[in-house]
Amino acid sequence: MNTLEDKHIQFLKPNSIFRTISSIAGQMNQEAYVIGGFVRDQILKRSTKDIDIVTLGSGIELAEKIAKELKTSSVKVFKNFGTAMIMVNDLEIQFVGARKESYRSDSRNPIVENGTIEEDQNRRDFTINALAISLNNSTYGDFTDPFGGLSDLNNQLLKTPLNPVITFTDDPLRMMRAIRFASQLNFQIEENTFKAICENIERIKIVAQERITEELNKIILSNHPSIGFKLLEKSGLLKIIFPEFQLLKGIDVIDGKGHKDNFYHTLQVLENLLPFSKNKLWLRWAALLHDIAKPSTKRFNKKQGWTFHGHEDKGARMVPTIFRNLKLPLDDKMKYVQKLVLLHLRPISLTNSSITDSALRRLLFDAGKDLDDLMSLCKSDITSKNKEKKIKYLKRFQTVKEKLIDVEKRDKIKNWQPPIDGKEIMTTFNLKPCKEVGVLKEMIKNAILDGEIKNNYKEAKAYMIIKSKELGIHE
Ligand code: CTP
User: Fold this and answer.
1) Could you tell me if residue 299 is inside a domain?
2) 109, 117, 124, 217, best to mutate for ligand 1 pocket (most atoms within 8 Å of CB)
3) Atom of ligand 1 nearest to the CA of 36
């Protein structure tokens, strides 16, 4: 018995749910197998909450009988797809009849016909996802592995069971899935499989944006997102699904001076950020987008060489369009990403002479509750290969960090709101919402942050009256 086979025994324990499924399928004279991601992840010791059961017959009937046996009412039937799902504790178990599927060229929706277990395995995306384990009495626990999925798992290889062109033409989302699994598992994509991705990239256009973005987000949250982005770029998929990111790649040279390649720089920033951003999808998005406007703000002049003036501001303004195109949420998550992109240069741009309490208070106020994430992003952005420069920036970063802690302890700015708000300004001066209200509010806030007046209602009110006169507003 090889080591992988040893492992499967552990998760088919005697009184597990698999025994129940096996016994009911046996009574129905219907073959049943555990298949797909669950088998793969058990062998790789990854946690999973989804179990896929494939049966030679009706998946719905099998699920209903099992639900009855387990006395659970939570069986969900999807008649159109011929599938059913039951929840057992926190496990989601899907039942489906074995299928032989063929796809139309203009859609991902398959035409479904009943098939044998091998035909069902045939139509799956990768050999490591086509591995099945028998739940049938006489062969209980045996692997059904016609495509060498076990050996591909051992060799950390992603390979399609059929000719990859067929597998990807059948369902082009699988091209994204291949790259996603490569990023999650740190597996190689087999040569012919990758070649087929490169040759079929245009087919991704028939896939719904939401599905593409779901895979993209999984790549971003994986342990090795830069593997994924490099493969997306190399295959040609990146320029189709995320053209703004593709534009970061490349170096221009004028008068023998080149700038850094912002594609690789961004991936390095993301890698540096990984330990601080487990499950923090939006922080990782902020890292991906922090320099997104560098290509469009890039200028060269003889004195300064390459500059990217205002890329943080333009980048923040690009975020809504990118989020809209990728069908990412346009709510506070987007605003958070925008804020981090806008502020990503601020902490490190404070030089010794400009680290005043006022500048620190301003940074605390602008970053608010997202300050820690901003600081993680900012630190990760120090990627200089020049050792001296790196040490200098890290030192400066550390000084700013310590001073921020100090000022926050004293002034509690992070979750602070000025003592006078827009509503009060409008009532005092009998104003409707207008530009002047905003200007006055901003002046009061700045006066407090700059230490011009104290952070209390009395001083803020007196200041408001003086400034209102200067602005020509009367009580
Ligand atoms: N599958 C496929 N082609 C797809 C999607 C899924 O062949 N486009 C098959 C694979 O056999 C896969 C199984 O359906 O293992 C279950 O799919 P899904 O739950 O989406 O993926 P998992 O492999 O379980 O991985 P994850 O849960 O990480 O998405």
Assistant:
1) no
2) 124
3) 15
